[in-house]
Amino acid sequence: MGVVNMNNKNQTCIDECNKCAQACLECMKMCLEEPDVANRKKCIAKLHECACICKEAASFMITDSCHAIDLCKLCATICEECAQECKTFKDDHCAKCAAECQKCAQECKSMQ
């Protein structure tokens, strides 16, 4: 729910983007602590990219930017890429992050 504007028409997507950004940053932190961290460079980079675009998409929706839908489309693409990359690792944190990225992608795709 919004803090000031309780009726933001994009609130579900805003919440999902913020949740996905958090999941990606948490997963990135955990990937950096894994013994095979060198094998996770691509995943870590994609997690960072995904967290960044999710935060920006949320900001654009909150301010009702005329480019919010365009950014949401890009966010959906990056979320899907991140989910695929996370799925290459068998850790619980990667599986949970992949699921969160897929939820966010679906929500962003539904933006009109």
From TrEMBL:
It comes from the Bacteria. Coiled coil: none annotated. Pfam families: Csp. Gene3D superfamilies: 1.20.1270.360. InterPro entries: Csp_YhjQ (IPR005560), YHJQ-like (IPR044543). This is Four-helix bundle copper-binding protein.
